[in-house]
Amino acid sequence: MTRLISDQIRTIPEKLETYDEELKTKTGLKLGELAAQAAGIIAKQIEPQRVTVAVIPVTAGLGTIEGFSEAIRAIAIHLGFRAFITASTDVGGLAEAYESGADLAILADDYVYVAINLNTRRVAGNDEATALGYTMALAKMAGGLNGKEVLLIGAGPVGSKAAGALIETGAKLIVLDLDKQREAGLAEVIEKKYGRRVAFGLELEEALQRKPLIFDASTGEGFITASMISENTIVAAPGLPSGLTSEAQKKVAARLVHDPLQIGTAVMLFKALA
User: Fold this and answer.
1) How far apart are CA 189 and CA 219, in angstroms?
2) Is the overall model pTM greater than 0.90, yes or no?
3) Phi, psi (degrees; rounded to nearest 5) at 213
4) What is the pLDDT of residues 52-94, one digit of tens each?
5) Peptide bond preceding 241: is omega within 30 degrees of 0, i.e. cis?
6) Residue-wise over 154-168: b if at least 16 C-beta within 10 A, else e?
7) Are 175 and 198 in contact (CB under 8 A)?
8) What is the pLDDT of residues 11-51, one digit of tens each?
9) From the CB of residue 87, how many other CB atoms can be counted at a distance below 10 Å?
10) HEC-encoded secondary structure of 55-85
11) How far does Cα 13 stand from its chain's mean position?
12) What are residue 256's DSSP bridge partners?
């Protein structure tokens, strides 16, 4: 996962209601509804208020990020879960989660972010959860993806998971990555697994001329400019920092889903219960 900074997450708890309304305006779904559908769960099949989530601070590597645990707890509570931050960190926090009778434990280090079902041993990872959540968001904004071209930018962990999710919706996939070997490798994997042709080997401007929907899973910053955005452009952008310039973000604001933590975390929690 991309390591966040405090400024990206500090205001998440206080803005969740506003975020929810904006997400519903764009996708027709609030965060919990989108996450439950993306995780393959009908929301009424589970009762979040009966599920306790233990948020475990982790000090390994570069250490805890100020506000991170608080943001996760706030998201879980917003979705209807009971949630608390363990008093202990790291292994002690995991032991505390078990001893307290928590149903889910959620924790992250510099490389891995997971939700663990302490009852079933199911582990839900952030890469897959983010890919599923943003694929769902893109599909809802676009009125479905079947037969539509989607430009997937970034063939890393999230992009690789998103490629499969997008193909399964019926999308026609274009893969773009600065690492052309990785780009071609992902296209080959998808073609072998799904028997579906994947376009690759294009330059960004060439790909955008086809006016595809955009799934930006890259970690590049500001390479999509406002001039590249049309009135039909729709963007799902889990990547941090954003690949869109600030001007491009403003131009596509009504057709852009982009957040640092909310969708991936929400889908993880529901996916751990699936």
Assistant:
1) 22
2) yes
3) -70, 155
4) 999 999 998 877 778 899 999 999 999 999 999 999 999 999 9
5) yes
6) bbbbbbbbbbbbbbe
7) yes
8) 899 999 999 999 999 999 999 999 999 999 875 577 889 99
9) 10
10) EECCCCCCCCCCCHHHHHHHHHHHCCCEEEE
11) 18
12) 235
Q: Which residue has the tokens 């052309």?
A: 180
Long-range Cβ contacts of 241-249 (<8 Å, 24+ apart): 242/216, 243/153, 243/216, 243/218, 244/216, 246/222, 248/224
In Å, what is the CA distance from 155 to each residue of 122, 168, 213, 240, 261?
26, 17, 16, 14, 20
Question: Residues 106, 72: contact at Cβ < 8 Å?
Answer: yes
SS3 letters across the chain: CCCCCHHHHCCHHHHHHHHHHHHHHHHCCCHHHHHHHHCCCCHHHCCHHHCEEEEECCCCCCCCCCCHHHHHHHHHHHCCCEEEECCCCHHHHHHHHHHHCCCEEEEECCCCEEEEECCCCCEEEHHHHHHHHHHHHHHHHHCCCCCCEEEEECCCHHHHHHHHHHHHCCCEEEEECCCHHHHHHHHHHHHHHHCCCCECCCCHHHHHCCCCEEEECCCCCCCECHHHCCCCCCEECCCCCCCECHHHHHHCHHHEECCCCHHHHHHHHHHCCC
